[in-house]
Amino acid sequence: MGGETAITTESALPPLDPFAGIPDRRYEVKAADLLKPGNGGLLRWRRTATNAPIVYVEDAYITGTLDLRAADLKYLFRFERCRFEQPPDVREAHLLGLVFRKCWLPGLKARNMRSRNDVRLIRSVVQVDGADREIEETTVQRGDDRERGMPNAAVNLTDAVIEGSLVLTRTVIAHPHGKAIHADRLVLAGALLAYRMVANGEVRLPGLRTGGNVNFSGATLNNPDGFALNGNGLHIGGSLLCEVDNYGPASQRKRFSATGIMYLPSATVDSDIVLREAKLTVSQQGPIAVDAWKSNDPYLDPRPALVADRMRVDGNVELSDGLQALGTLRMVNARIGGSLRLAGAEVSVVRGKSQPYYDRALHLDGTEIGGDIEATSLRVPAGQLRLADVTVGGNFLAWNSMFRHPGRDVFSARRSKIAGNFQLTDATIHGTLRLQGVEVGGSINLAGTRLTEPGLRATSSFSLDVRTGRIGRDLTLRDNNGRPFVAEGGVNLDGAQVARRVDLRGSQLGSLPPFMVALDAGDVAADEFTLTPNVPPTGRVVLRRAHCGTLTDNEEFWAASEGIELEDFRYDALGKSIPLADDKALDHRIDLLSRAMRGYRPGPYDQLAHMLRAAGNEEHASTVALRKQQFRYDALAGGFKFFGPGVRLWSWLQRSMVGYGYRPVRALGWLFTLLVLGSLWFGLGSDDCIHWVSSDPTHQIIANGPRCVVNQQDTGLQWNPVIYTADLLVPIVDFGNKSRWYMHGSDNWVAAGFTASGWILATTVAAGVSRMLRRES
């Protein structure tokens, strides 16, 4: 026995198999006999010089009740391959230790027990017989008499103190109508080790205190209509491990499984929580959800697989690497010192028919995470990921993920703060990705992500919503290795602030009725806009009051099916500048503007002209301003039914004569041309006149030619057709010619025409000069 004393009934007989049903009575030992004084009784055993203080019982069927209640014994009790008729009772006992190995027990009563060493249930079965349910019901109101009926827990360790560890490795604990383990306020100096344990019924550990890990790796917790694990307010000095048990060959690996709620509100874990490859399932129709679906509380998750509100974890929380959860993973207002890992997990919920906020697969509102949220290859076949007001000290990384919640918000991270990057590349998203008010210290990168089936609201139907977001570097909505960024319902960036670049290279932007907005970038500010989709946006593009340092675009962008709103859109330079000698490039850009706006708007032309003028390209700036005036008069002419032709004529005169004031040299050209034509006309005609030879006013005019002096005094004025034409062309200044020569016939009409031309020329020049003065002021 190696220093241990074995107490058996018939040591020569084969050991009793405690799991083979009703044992053979030949190996029966009465518990009362074990407690009698004498050499055969447990209590008569004493340590000797060669023996340790261990009581060792093996291969026995123990009838009656092993009653050690309130005993103070400095022994370690070890039972191996034993079967108990009644639950051992060690309540309020003080023992050195307690071990059951390969035993069968109908229960264990250990409330308020004190153990100086480990308490172990290894490879054992603790099975409360469901046939005794009637006994329990008849004794529930009888105080201590209840202890004589069926216990409310298969293993009761309430308020126990164990100075070692609690070991439940490979043990099956079952209670058909109660709790498998009831261990409120259990205190462990060491760890709780429950590798491959099977618990049918609630494992209740509220207020648990441990110095080491709590390890349920490979365990199976089964309580479909309630809490599979109740750890309300527990404090774990190490890690909580609920993952795969890799002991033995690879074919014998066993994953942690919980059917029922993992309930860990206000829990404190000094190291990590690890649920790698775990399987969490909660009833989707049972009593948990019946009343919850009728509640109007928008923060309620009626079918959670994990509840960890207000949890405090100093290390990482790993819900990753093949974790499967059917039910909400809820960690509201939690504090995680390390990272939250969801990589390779699959989380799903049953979609609600009337209350959309009951569809949350992941609920992290108000949680603070010191490290990263890693969700690469995360799959959410049904349900919403809600991360409102979450603070992340690192990055959000979720490439190659799939989220599905069609017609609703599939990912909502309103007002969240991420110190690093938000990377959701090459993902497939069915529903709306809502990042309204988010603050990201680095970049938002959605390259290659496909967003379809957005949520429909009364005011919008966007696939991506980053309204009023604050982004420290880039907003990347571009293609990735040939996979385009797709937003079936469009992108809303209204009021977002991006420190560097808004990048839509190779993107595909759509829209849905009735709003038909493919891109709303109103009031967006960024250092650079790269608006180069690979196909024209299907819908309207809004750039009202947006501003960027550099604008890079392409023809597909300007060909948006519902046009572009460009009022007060400002940009300081073009990504591809217009050369001074390339008039065709300028004409092409003006045509793009004109077609995109679907009507006349002065602001976009003024902005283009201002940008060109700031770059030193004054000639092209004047061309843009000229074309703007042309479009203005065309729009005015279209608004007047009867006066439209007159407006168009006036526009043509201003454009041809002085270019609306932006081509002042044209006025000199017209003036010189009219001067030459008038000089030729009046100079080539007959100019014979008989001058007055007397100042007598009674004399008559005798003329031999068409032109004569009309005043009655001889001024000595000589006929000069050039000066006379110049006097006609200048409408305000009088050079003393046009009023001293008499014209008749065709000359009279030609002179009147030159006078009218002078007035028109002067009027257009004045209009152009005033327009230039207003522009430069």
Reconstruct the topology from this structure.
Blueprint: E1 5-7, E2 28-30, H1 31-34, E3 54-58, E4 61-63, E5 76-80, E6 83-84, E7 94-95, E8 97-101, E9 104-105, E10 108-109, E11 114-115, E12 119-122, E13 125-127, H2 133-139, E14 153-156, E15 161-162, E16 166-167, E17 172-182, E18 187-188, E19 192-193, E20 198-204, E21 209-210, E22 214-215, E23 220-230, E24 235-236, E25 240-241, E26 257-263, E27 268-269, E28 273-274, E29 279-281, H3 287-290, E30 304-307, E31 312-313, E32 317-318, E33 324-326, E34 328-330, E35 335-336, E36 340-341, E37 346-348, E38 360-363, E39 368-369, E40 373-374, E41 379-382, E42 384-386, E43 391-392, E44 396-397, E45 402-412, E46 417-418, E47 422-423, E48 428-434, E49 439-440, E50 444-445, E51 450-452, E52 464-465, E53 470-471, E54 475-476, E55 486-487, E56 491-492, E57 497-498, E58 501-503, E59 508-509, E60 517-520, E61 525-531, E62 540-542, E63 547-553, H4 555-558, E64 564-565, E65 570-574, H5 583-597, H6 602-614, H7 618-639, H8 644-658, H9 665-684, E66 708-709, H10 721-729, E67 741-742, H11 746-776
Parallel strand pairs: 1-3, 2-4, 3-5, 4-6, 5-8, 7-11, 8-12, 9-13, 10-14, 11-15, 12-16, 13-17, 14-17, 15-18, 16-19, 17-20, 18-21, 19-22, 20-23, 21-24, 22-25, 23-26, 24-27, 25-28, 26-29, 26-30, 27-31, 28-32, 29-33, 30-34, 31-35, 32-36, 33-37, 34-38, 35-39, 36-40, 37-41, 38-42, 39-43, 40-44, ...
Antiparallel strand pairs: 66-67
Helix pairs in contact: 6-7, 7-8, 8-11, 9-10, 9-11
Keywords: Membrane, Transmembrane, Transmembrane helix
Transmembrane segments: 635-653, 665-684, 749-769
Protein name: Oxidoreductase
